[in-house]
Design a protein that fits this description.
ECF transporter S component, about 200 residues, single chain
Length: about 200
């Protein structure tokens, strides 16, 4: 890879990182509050990065989201429950890295040529979204399902089924949004830009 290609890749990753940070801190862009939890749209940015740039870069972008989310939890700028559960990096960071890895890898396995992108993009979008939902919910159940050792005033054992129900319900519109937006945004990038030419070499 030449210097120009490396510089271009770093610039594009920087752009995705800036979008992720903007979505995290500007109200109603990255998180839509629903009850005690938030429906997120940030996973769509990670999935787009993964299918356009590849699984490794997708994992990097996902990791940036996870780190920012973790910092938000530590600095008390997340949701009420987010400030508790997202302090654990196995919930806030690891699932977001795996979004990029899984969506990017799956797209690479499914796509055959750049004239037939829609179905691979839909499948990759749904898979990436479900990766986030399943791993975050699984982390909540694993680490907090038997009660919080941090805040004894909160009965997580009683609250966890409600959290899982609400977040699971949120996971459905998040997956639908990914299935619609990932192809709409990614297909033109893959077909008509240098990103696509590099991806299909």
């Amino acid at each position: 890879m030449g210097k120009n290609s490396s510089a271009a890749r770093i610039s594009i990753l920087g752009l995705f990182a800036a979008i992720i940070i903007l979505q995290n801190y500007v109200p109603m862009i990255g998180y839509l509050p629903v009850g005690p939890l938030n429906i997120t749209t940030i996973h769509i940015t990670v999935i787009i990065a993964a299918v356009v740039l590849g699984p490794v870069d997708g994992a990097l972008v996902g990791g940036i989201w996870g780190i920012v989310d973790w910092i938000r939890a530590l600095t008390v700028t997340s949701s009420a429950l987010g400030n508790i559960v997202m302090v654990n990096p196995l919930i806030s960071i690891l699932p977001r890295i795996l979004i990029g890895l899984i969506a990017g890898w799956l797209f690479s396995r499914l796509v055959r040529n750049k004239d037939k992108l829609t179905l691979p993009l839909i499948i990759s979008g749904i898979a990436g979204s479900l990766t986030n939902t399943v791993l975050v919910l699984g982390g909540i159940a694993l680490f907090f399902g038997n009660g919080s050792t941090i805040l004894h005033a909160i009965n997580f054992q009683a609250l966890t089924p409600y959290i899982l129900l609400v977040a699971g319900t949120n996971g459905i519109p998040e997956a639908i949004a990914a299935a619609i937006l990932v192809p709409l945004i990614s297909a033109p990038l893959l077909k008509y830009t240098k990103l696509g030419r590099d991806r299909f070499r």
